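From the pipeline queue, job 12 of 40. The input is one protein chain; the requested action is below.

Action: predict structure.
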Amino acid sequence: MRKPFCVRHLFCTLVLALGTMGVQAADLAQYLKPGHPEVYTVVKGDTLWGISGRFLKRPWLWPEIWQVNPQIENPHLIYPGDRISLVYVQGQPRLALTRGDAGRTVRMSPSNDVKLSPQIRVSPLDSAIPTIGLDALRGFLVQNRIVEPSWLITSPYVVEGASERIVLGAGDRLYVRGELMDERSYSIVRRGPIYVDPVTEEVLGQEATHIGLGTASAQDGEIATMEVSSTREEIKIGDRVMPTEERRVQSTFFPSAPDEEIRGEIISVFGGVTQVGTYDVVVLNRGEREGLENGNVLATYRKGALARDRIAGDTIRLPSERAGLLMVFRVFEKLSYGLILESEQALAVGDEIRNP
């Protein structure tokens, strides 16, 4: 199981690795944005990407100038009312955090722990700001996942609904061929595209598109009964049933450059569009095994067109042109989901991704 992402660890790693990333400590000042504020107070509606862009020409360099304050618990969580100040440490620019009331003040509520004496639970009065506007991702792809194609072939599947219904929704009872455990929650998924690396032709995985949730209520031989609790779209005969995935949606990761050299392609785009623009979600043919992590920022390049060389009598590909930036927000072993943050020109499947 992959270890939880740790911003403080990433910060330390980046500081040690600046030389290999091509950003020397002595050069950090050149990335400060002209007209940047000396102090900025976080407000509701801010995102980390937006605040980074106030101080830096390259917002993904945020971790390299972030000053971790050991007296503040979870300094990587930033709340409305917090003050971010530009300071200099040994001649180098750093961003320091002063906690505001929303992140420091606590509210009291009964503890769930059984104790002989009264207990309280403390938590910030406001939510930490996200990396980007969550509206771009809320309810979208959170429960989708990439699996081995064989898993979907062998998973239990919907054979019929109660009263012989073939299209089902929330509140319905359905029957599944396969073994399910009583009282356990399951995801109902639909087989999506199989992703293949365009260069190596390696099968990278298959999309399991989330359709709904249900709870197994009975098992009779090879037929299980399930009560549907929620749906994103209508359940159909043949949809697959898989154990729910235990995971938390991460929204507070810092934008950062990858530790490794990344070169890959956009291999798919969600939403049925052919021209990719800002806030579109794309699938990349690079993942954990190539060193990608949530929050990594990558540059996008429009692949150069093919041109006929009339002198040599052959066809050549023109150089790729930089088109914008994307941020990786969910990583699987062999591929990742990315959100287009900036787009100077329309992208398409087959266009390139590289280190920023």
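Job complete. The first helix runs from residue 7 to 16.
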